[in-house]
Amino acid sequence: MVVAGLCRLLARNRIRVAPFKAQNMSNNSVVTVDGGEIGRAQAIQARAAGLAPRVRFNPILLKPGSDRTSQLVIKGQVADSVTAADYVKHRDRLAAIVSDELSCLRKEFDAVICEGAGSPAEINLRATDLANMGLARAANLPVILVGDIDRGGLLAHLFGTVAVLEPEDQALIAGFVVNKFRGDPALLEPGLRQLLEMTGRPTYGVLPYADELWLDAEDSLSVVAHRVVGTPAPPCGDEWLKVAAIRLPRISNSTDVEALACEPGVLVRWIADPADAADADLIVLPGSKATVADLAWLHDRGLVAAIVGHARAGKPVLGICGGMQMLCRRITDTVESGSGEVAGLGLLDADIVFSRVKTLRNWHRPLSGYEIHHGQLTRSSEAAWFDVDAEPQGVRSGAVFGTHWHGLLDNDDFRRAWLTGVAEAAGRTGFTVADDTDVVARRDGQLDRIADLLAAHLDVDAVLGLLDGPPPRRPHLVSRLRPAQRAQTSHCQADPL
Q: Where is region (Disordered) located (predicted)?
């Protein structure tokens, strides 16, 4: 979010800026204009900079398929499926790709804002790091640590992050930004002053917590943290429309439901329990990076009965990409899970067969959207939901809808018409769709809102000053504990002190 705001802030000042994330780990991805696949966060950051999404902004993408394996996407194309141990073998080759892409961007743009990945203090992973201090050291980049104070313990976190780094890495840490602060900043100021005295590094700004920011969650962690999507506006009519989106373990492109949440009177909740679906008017099965595994999870959680019962009562169900595949009669997967033929939920009389070649496609007219999937619809006896270029791009059976398209609901006229039918099928006769909701404009408004927050609460001149010349060489920290004290603390793990 901070990188997106900086990109928009610089672009508004006519500075040619580009985002860069050397390596992302996310199942929220988009198809680029050059036919590849990158993390959705970098696509949004590119939009903030006034650029079309390209693979160069995120050359390495890891898409987790299980707790131990990830699909490795290099320069937009699937290259391999790797474990953490396997990934070490690719490190040198990937580092060269990252270096080349960043070097080219720095020649073309006035500024390149590089987003890290998680915490730079994961010192057990430092040897293979491509996106944090490994990138900063290789390219001699100044680094700002952004800390989420809403989680608590931030001052210790910032100090400790710097302290555990190698001296050469520490030297590149220019300063800090505090994110998501609630309350009076004056109460935090003494701590920031002490942090400066202890580390020799300034805090460039304290960004306030803003409830209205919902922009494109990067991964499922955000889905877990926020049960309600966005801040729902009151309905235009007499009734709310309640949407239950299934929080799959390997959810992908969870941002599809954000378009629904933009509509006044539409309450979108993430659920993982059958009881939470009881009062839903619409159930959404989103995309998944592990269709067969997540289908088994639905059975284990007892959600299958809730979904099937909802559909058989004539209430609407929507499946998007992997979610649509689960709604079909049969899934044959020798690619992603290796499970062979698996029974789906049978709510759509259609079959899915996984292909080793991933479909990556953008659509622009008359509807916009994009496809990212291995599973292919090979048979369907159902009616077409909608057509593009005289080809069916979605299927429906009564009030059950399915499509491989992501971003379909961003099309305002299409979404309004469909939601009107959903409300009718759900018996919500008092629900009225607004006629002026513009999802694309809402997303752009979010980017401007983030930029405005930075302009108001960040020492922008000091941050932009880091773009000029080499990084400031900050002091090396050593532990403030004497050896005897360190020995004592090592025996205090269970002590409530």
A: 474-497
Instruction: Please state the domain extents for the chain.
Output: 2-214+445-473, 220-439
Question: Which residues have a catalytic role annotated?
Answer: 321, 406
Q: Report the distance separating Cα 337 and Cα 355, nearest Å.
A: 12
Write out the two tokens for 492: 């205090």
DSSP string, 168-233: HHHTTEEEEEEEEE-S-HHHHHHHHHHHHHHHS--EEEEEEP-TT-----SSHHHHHH-SB-S-PP
For the chain, the average pLDDT equals: 92
pTM for the model stands at 0.91
Q: What's the CATH code, domain 220-439? A: 3.40.50.880
Q: Count CB neighbours of 300 within 10 A.
A: 9
**409-418: b (≥16 Cβ within 10 Å) or e:** bbbbebbeeb
Residue 241 φ then ψ, to 5°: -110, 120
What are the E-state strand segments in 393-496? 394-397, 400-403
- The answer on pLDDT for 167 being more than 50 is yes
What is the average pLDDT across 252-262? 92
What pLDDT digit, counting tens, does each position of 5-60 carry? 999 999 999 999 999 999 999 999 999 999 999 999 999 999 999 999 999 999 99
